[in-house]
Automatic annotation (TrEMBL), chains A, B:
This is TetR/AcrR family transcriptional regulator. Residues 17-36 bind DNA. Keywords: DNA-binding, Transcription, Transcription regulation. The keyword DNA-binding applies. The lineage of its organism: Bacteria, Bacillati, Actinomycetota, Actinomycetes, Streptosporangiales.
Amino acid sequence: MQATLALAQEIGYARLSIEAVAARAGAGKHTIYRRWPSKGLLFLDSLLSLNEPVLDYPDTGDVLADLREQIYAAVDLLASPPWGPLYRALIGEAQHDPAVAAALNDRFIRPQTDKTIARLKTAQDQGQVSPDLDLDLVMAILSGPLYFGLLITQESMTHDYIDRVLDALFTGMSPRH
Amino acid sequence: MQATLALAQEIGYARLSIEAVAARAGAGKHTIYRRWPSKGLLFLDSLLSLNEPVLDYPDTGDVLADLREQIYAAVDLLASPPWGPLYRALIGEAQHDPAVAAALNDRFIRPQTDKTIARLKTAQDQGQVSPDLDLDLVMAILSGPLYFGLLITQESMTHDYIDRVLDALFTGMSPRH
């Protein structure tokens, strides 16, 4: 998996191949294929092996501050070459490879969703978040704008932008707040 | 472009090629290449040629109702085979082809953003939306959850789900609303 990450950083995801990884790692191609039937699955596991604790939520007692920190960390990670392009390439792969999509959701998205819900549940219990907020929606609502920026407009997202999005999500679109 | 759409529906985006389109359309391959240097760009133009008015915003005077209608229409279109998989494939292409990403933004995302901002500006003027809402964020905030559902979790989105997301966005995450 280290060979995969090293190669991906050097040549980009498009040119990555299991053959090239096998050569770099000094491993048999078929050994790799048995465990990772596609480059998408190999790459996903390699990314996950980095086990980035920076994507966990702090709990300082201030949910807005903690959300900011976590989202800043995510966006900063994506802005550090080559992670943004690599994550985008992985998500691109997930659009036509259902096994990669399933693995991405099982191994990354759902655990991240659970962490997000847990942090917000604590905040609800402490009266910092509306008791009526449907926690099943929070991952889509909080990460949606980030995925829109990463995958669609592909513009770099500043900390200021994150602050403004969080402010709008907390305040709400209705008048009289 | 009709040949492109017909073929894409029949064989899927992955198997689409400019050669196959040329054969279907009875056109010269080089004629097509001159106008559309990649299958991504050809496919984007073909999708746009459908010119779906259903993606415009109604203005009934009730912004929440109008947003619901527009988003229901978008989600219903994506749920009608083969449009969801084809749009996802196009966005997948945009992750590694900057020309497709640029064309998608110029020819579809930005016009849709402008329409969204215009409808919400009207709503602001009529006191239906907070005067403090930063309209530059609304496309990311409103469409973000949809793209999260389309590209990441890849679960079908119901009208009820849309209602709940819009409710959360209008109400806001803060307590005491």
